[in-house]
Amino acid sequence: MLFFSYFKELVGKEVTVELKNDLAIRGILHSVDQYLNIKLENTRVVDQEKYPHMLSVRNCFIRGSVVRYVQLPPDGVDIDILHDATRREARGA
Amino acid sequence: MVDWRETISVITNDGRNIVGILKGFDQATNIILDESHERVYSTKEGVQQLVLGLYIIRGDNISVVGELDEELDANLDLSKLRAHPLKPVIH
């Protein structure tokens, strides 16, 4: 639940999503849901030479189950707040 | 059923790329595609298109669903595109 809330805060920012098939897609985070499925807008595949498979795709939905990493913008995380929130959740509060 | 005509490009967990008209979907990302075809990438020749027709793809097996921009796609010369097929997803 915590990371769902966290990703919702990132909506509108540019992120790079690396999938478990090594494909990396950069785009503006449009939305995220409870499964951490991600919708990106204005997408570009990071290595288009190697992966031309999505050349004519500008908006996409990525299934949460295939996401390996989400690279965030440098100002995308307030570590202190996230620390507090994870501790609170671990305590079950 | 959805009543708009939206062409989508699906990348499956086994690395296949299927393009078709979105007819329906559900919470589990199961997808119904009509007039679908598979785009087979290879390094030896251009992209081959295999006709599949009406297809249901189980959500489990779906990685990415992309909205196909018809204009961009019309400008793509698939016969000149060379690439390795996408790798399968390893969980």
From TrEMBL, chain A:
Source species, domain of life: Eukaryota
Pfam families in the record: LSM
Domain Sm: 2-76
CDD domains (UniProt xref): LSm2
Chain coiled-coil ranges: none
PANTHER family in the record: SNRNP CORE PROTEIN FAMILY MEMBER, U6 SNRNA-ASSOCIATED SM-LIKE PROTEIN LSM2
Record's protein name: Sm-like protein LSM2
UniProt source species: Dendrobium nobile
From TrEMBL, chain B:
Subunit field text: LSm subunits form a heteromer with a doughnut shape.
CDD domains: LSm8 (cd01727)
Name of the protein in its database record: U6 snRNA-associated Sm-like protein LSm8
GO cellular component entries: precatalytic spliceosome; U4/U6 x U5 tri-snRNP complex; U6 snRNP
Domain Sm as annotated: residue spans: 1-71
Alphabetized PROSITE patterns for the sequence: SM (PS52002)
Gene3D superfamilies recorded: 2.30.30.100
One GO MF term: mRNA binding
Function: Plays role in pre-mRNA splicing as component of the U4/U6-U5 tri-snRNP complex that is involved in spliceosome assembly, and as component of the precatalytic spliceosome (spliceosome B complex). The heptameric LSM2-8 complex binds specifically to the 3'-terminal U-tract of U6 snRNA.
Species: Dendrobium catenatum
Record keywords, A-Z: mRNA processing, mRNA splicing, Nucleus, Ribonucleoprotein, RNA-binding, Spliceosome
Subcellular location: Nucleus
Family according to the record: Belongs to the snRNP Sm proteins family.
Record-linked SUPFAM superfamilies: Sm-like ribonucleoproteins
Upper taxonomic lineage: Eukaryota, Viridiplantae, Streptophyta, Embryophyta, Tracheophyta
Main subcellular location of this protein, as a coarse class: nucleus
UniProt KW Ion transport keyword: no
One GO term (biological process): mRNA splicing, via spliceosome
